[in-house]
Amino acid sequence: MNNRVTEILKTKYPLIQAPMNWLTDSKLVSAVSNAGGLGSFGPNAGRDSLEQDSMTVMRNQIREAQRLTDNPFAMTVGLNPQGEDQTYAHKILTNALAENVKYFIVGGEPDASIYREIKDTGAILIARSYNPTPKEAKLQEQLGADIIVATGYDEGGVIPTKGNGTFTTIPRIVDAVSVPVMAAGGITDVRGIRAAAALGAEGFFIGSSFIVTKESRAAMNAKQKIIDSTVEDMVLVAPQQRSIRNAKMDELAKQFYDGSHDTFIKTRKMGGTKTAMLDGKLADGEISINTGIDQITDIPSVKQLIQRFMQDYQ
Ligand SMILES: Cc1cc2nc3c(=O)[nH]c(=O)nc-3n(C[C@H](O)[C@H](O)[C@H](O)COP(=O)(O)O)c2cc1C
């Protein structure tokens, strides 16, 4: 069943596997694209350590994905706040364009120069604000975004600091722009898909659920921990970060509620999502996941997961 999103993405389904830093490597990305969605690479894709050269690994990951699928996939370009240096974003873009990547997820406040660079090549630009507002969505559309992602506080990863939920964010963004809007944040089964569609979303941008798929490189004990946990097992450790609890996260949560302002930096110093989620050291780091965790209950293949989500789009 085609709609505006499948026409723009040239995919079978209006579904993007969202970028998730260390976890979204060529195996997962190509499996998603082969199953009818659009796979996407996050930063550090395929890397095992910070010592590896990120641009070399990125090029190799893109080539590997091109070997594993003939279907399109996307690269993520994360922007710094407006006015700050965007050299690293330009470097990612140049590197990916040289490898013939034709789809870009651009995260952060829109930057005219980056948007122009992407649009001038004829590539597809999917815009994702970290704190979506109608004003920013209008600017993204004006600068040439083909699709806009409406992300709510329910998401996994770095969460919107304004605290607006997914189901209040979607209609705000849908009403502000005429390009199609994809919903992100807390969607973990077909009921979430249907609810987001009822609010006007024409596509779905899904991260957390893909962490526990067979093809995901997340550590097996981290996958099992996610399956065994519920929303009651999570704590907010910073305005933009929640995690499944362990002694270290409980300590950070306590510091945060006592007024500390550096708990997010502390999660980064502990290795961010790599330590527990990739390396499997569950006691030593965060497990970042969405508030739909109760519905994540097994380890499906990517194809099975996409079929579950997309049962109304056959
Ligand atoms: C473990 C994890 C890591 C993430 N890393 C990134 C990232 O590096 N860059 C980014 O733009 N978004 C990142 N995200 C956010 C996702 O791209 C996406 O917005 C989110 O997962 C969608 O909501 P959901 O998790 O509720 O499905 C991450 C999400 C998770 C769960």
Structure in words:
The protein is an alpha/beta fold. It folds into two domains: 4-214 and 298-313, Alpha-Beta Barrel (TIM Barrel), CATH 3.20.20; 220-293, no CATH class. It contains 14 helices and ten strands. It has helices spanning 4-9, 26-34, 54-68, 87-98, 112-120, 134-142, 166-176, 190-198, 208-211, 220-228, 247-257, 263-269, 273-278, 302-309; strands at residues 15-17, 39-41, 73-78, 103-107, 124-128, 147-151, 181-184, 203-206, 234-238, 241-244. An eight-stranded parallel β-sheet has the order 1-8-7-6-5-4-3-2. It has a two-stranded antiparallel sheet with strand order 9-10. α3 links the parallel β2 and β3 (73-78). It is globular, with a radius of gyration of 18 Å. Bound molecules: flavin mononucleotide. The site of flavin mononucleotide (FMN) has 28 residues, from β3, β8 and α13.
What is this entry, summarized?
40% of the residues lie in helices and 14% in strands. By secondary structure, the chain is an alpha/beta fold.
Major beta sheet, strand line-up: 1-8-7-6-5-4-3-2
Largest sheet, strands/sense/barrel: 8 strands, parallel
| Secondary structure tally, helices | 14
| Counted beta strands | 10
At the first level of CATH, the class of the largest domain is Alpha Beta
Strand content: 5-15%
- What are the segments in which pLDDT stays under 50 over at least 5 consecutive residues? none
H/E element order? HEHEHEHEHEHEHEHEHHEEHHHH
- Class of secondary structure makeup: alpha/beta
The radius of gyration computed from the alpha-carbon positions, rounded to a whole number of angstroms, is 18 Å
Ligands present: flavin mononucleotide
| Mean pLDDT figure | 97
Q: What is the terminal-to-terminal distance?
A: 6 Å
How many domain regions? 2
General shape: globular
The name of the CATH superfamily of the largest domain reads: Aldolase class I
Helix content: 25-40%
Would you tell me which CATH topology of the largest domain applies?
TIM Barrel
Just name the CATH architecture of the largest domain: Alpha-Beta Barrel
